[in-house]
Specification:
A four-stranded antiparallel sheet has the order 1-2-7-6, with no helix packed on it. Strands 3-4-5 form a three-stranded antiparallel sheet. Strand 3 and strand 4 form a beta hairpin. The chain has a domain of about 80 residues: Immunoglobulin-like, CATH 2.60.40. It has two helices and seven strands. Helix content is about 10%, strand content about 35%. It comes from Shewanella aestuarii.
Length: about 150
């Protein structure tokens, strides 16, 4: 079976949209992020007009084994399991004890405001704070002045 890479031509989008030249970059990063194999599973919730929550299932990880960093428009969540001192003999091991690294691309003006770990679920709260200068404003239309000469 052959795999074909489709590279869409985004030129029509650039004609009518200003500042969306990052779209191709975001698509590439999303495609590269698909290698995460789905571990650990997560949800993204809309809590309000500009509030969001990422909930990750991190059962078995202690707070000191988790690290959250936010840099620019990238959120990175890492989990590194500390090696257990006792050697266990498993007949079946279905609970993952491997480390992970999951990244999320954040939209403009979205920032992390807090994180909590409870019952094996890591909640990361985010908010989008649009600067006043970027909010919609009404532009007054005036009559043109005729120049007499």
């Amino acid at each position: 079976m052959r795999n074909f890479s489709i590279s869409p031509d985004l030129t029509p989008l650039y004609r009518s949209a200003i500042g969306f030249d990052r779209l191709a970059k975001l698509a590439e990063q999303t495609a590269a992020n698909n290698g995460n194999n789905g571990y650990p599973p997560y949800n993204i919730e809309l809590l309000g007009e500009n509030r969001y929550r990422i909930t990750m299932a991190v059962a078995g990880f202690a707070m000191e084994e988790l690290e959250i960093t936010s840099e620019g428009e990238k959120l990175l969540v890492k989990g590194n399991k500390n090696p257990t001192k006792d050697e266990r003999k498993y007949l079946h091991q279905g609970i993952a004890e491997r480390g992970f690294e999951r990244s999320f691309q954040l939209a403009d003006h979205v920032k992390v405001i807090g994180a909590e770990l409870e019952n094996g679920l890591l909640d990361i709260d985010l908010v989008r704070e649009i600067p006043e200068a970027m909010k919609a404003r009404k532009i007054e239309i005036t009559r043109s002045r005729l120049v007499e000469g």
